[in-house]
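thought: user wants a sequence for this fold. calling inverse folding tool.
action: design(structure=
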């Protein structure tokens, strides 16, 4: 999923479509699947590779946005005398995608699902990703089934992973889940989502990890003008994410013990990035005393407040150094941890939408069984970080350009107006060019001083004039007054 989710509603959708279509063309985004890929997908949907182990008796359920049909994960939660048991089924994409085939080649070309405000460009044909391979309710399908036992404090005590046939019983959405949990009407397997989620959040705090409850940005047209708003995530979304995070951490530990794997790694943020974030906090009038750590500040914020929501959006900039680290032959890499997770971690729970997860699942299955990974996995392993980096960069570009287009649409009728802003970044080689954070609306955009006007005052508040806002070129530009 994108770090920053944007959607458009109402009449705002129509004028943005042309700019978004142009962006797809400019970035050479793949859209339609070729006939060979579709033909292979149809064959795979009819005849997937099925596992021998039958786990269809486990009453799994999914929790996703109500319109989602590409369902990667299904879960069942239960109590044990010593704690809890988490069963987490992940779509088994390898049961449908043959190594070296047309589907495989297309997935390596696309790398990730791309998200636009008006739709998505899927990694796999919808026939699979939203059909045969998806963990839809009342559909028997192959999955990679994780079983993680936890103690009474939510710490893992045992992990098992194997291929299995599964059958989800219900497709739930976050809002209805939250209502059931708040009302105390949820049956135990769902009610435990809150109990386990809260325990895992406590474990996260103890190890120094950070979960960003990044709100969804929404641009809507009201009374003839564009308006920017934020939808704060529900607590149930965070508890659901903790189950995925738990699985990614268990997978990383399994691969590290095995000696071969692929990790999602992130070094600690450089001082410059944190300094920029402090200036953004100041711009949004968020109090961040120097004795308060970044993690403490994040946990104190309320995503329902617009200026807190805007700051949480900007906190995603600290994730930009994340990458994939491959290791084999028992040689542990220098960096094994993800700074935001504060532990070893890997991507393995979204194979319908991200290429690397299919490989991570295979490596974990091999590690759990104590056998060699498939040759097609080992052959692709060394190239995987580069391929994922290229795909992630494209997804990041899509995300940034979409934000620019949406913000240009928001401001297009306000060219010439004055705003209060703070300079949060200045280019070293061209100090008359930089970035400003507006107080209202919460927009981040480029600023350029007129020739001879001098260096931009980094970290200071100033009045700025909007000089350009064109959704067609996705450009917003300000100038100091």
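)
observation: tool returned 481 residues.
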């Amino acid at each position: 999923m994108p770090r920053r989710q944007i959607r458009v509603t109402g009449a705002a959708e129509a004028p943005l479509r042309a700019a978004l279509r142009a962006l797809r063309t400019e970035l050479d985004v793949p859209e339609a699947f070729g006939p060979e890929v579709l033909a292979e997908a149809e064959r795979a949907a009819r005849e997937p590779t099925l596992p021998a182990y039958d786990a269809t008796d486990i009453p799994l359920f999914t929790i996703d946005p109500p319109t989602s049909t590409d369902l990667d994960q299904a879960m069942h939660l239960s109590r044990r005398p010593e704690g809890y048991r988490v069963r987490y089924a992940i779509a088994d994409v390898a049961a449908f995608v043959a190594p070296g085939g047309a589907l495989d080649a297309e997935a390596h070309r696309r790398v990730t699902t791309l998200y636009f405000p008006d739709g998505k460009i899927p990694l796999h044909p919808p026939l699979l990703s939203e059909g045969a391979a998806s963990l839809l309710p009342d559909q028997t399908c192959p999955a990679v089934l994780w079983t993680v036992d936890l103690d009474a404090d939510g710490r893992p005590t045992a992990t098992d992973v194997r291929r299995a046939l599964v059958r989800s019983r219900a497709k739930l959405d976050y809002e209805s889940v939250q209502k059931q949990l708040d009302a105390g009407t949820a049956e135990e397997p769902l009610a435990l989502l809150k109990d386990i989620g809260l325990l895992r959040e406590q474990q996260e705090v103890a190890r120094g990890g950070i979960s960003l409850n990044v709100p969804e940005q929404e641009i809507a047209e009201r009374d003839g003008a564009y308006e920017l708003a934020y939808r704060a995530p529900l607590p149930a979304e965070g508890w659901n994410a903790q189950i995925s995070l738990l699985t990614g951490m268990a997978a990383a530990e399994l691969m590290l013990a095995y000696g071969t794997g692929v990790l999602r790694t992130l070094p600690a943020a450089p001082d410059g990035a944190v300094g920029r974030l402090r200036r953004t906090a100041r711009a949004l009038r968020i109090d961040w005393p120097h004795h308060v750590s970044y993690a403490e500040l994040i946990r104190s914020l309320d995503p329902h407040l617009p200026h807190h929501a805007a700051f949480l959006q900007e906190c995603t900039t600290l994730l930009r150094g994340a990458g994939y680290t491959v290791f084999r032959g028992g040689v542990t890499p220098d960096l094994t941890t993800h700074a935001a997770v504060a532990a070893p971690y890997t991507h393995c729970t979204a194979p319908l939408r991200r290429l690397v997860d299919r490989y991570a699942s295979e490596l974990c299955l091999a590690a759990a069984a104590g056998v060699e990974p498939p040759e097609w996995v080992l052959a692709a392993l060394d190239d995987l970080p580069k391929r994922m980096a290229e795909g992630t960069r494209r997804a990041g570009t899509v995300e940034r350009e979409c934000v620019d287009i949406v913000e240009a649409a928001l401001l297009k009728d306000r060219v010439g107006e004055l705003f209060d802003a703070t300079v949060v970044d200045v280019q070293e080689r061209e100090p008359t060019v930089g970035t400003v954070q507006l107080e209202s609306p919460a927009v981040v955009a480029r600023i350029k001083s007129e020739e001879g006007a001098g260096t931009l005052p980094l970290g200071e508040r100033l009045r700025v004039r909007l000089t350009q806002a064109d959704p067609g070129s996705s450009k917003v530009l300000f100038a100091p007054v």
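thought: summarizing for user.
answer: Here is the designed sequence. The longest helix spans residues 384-411.
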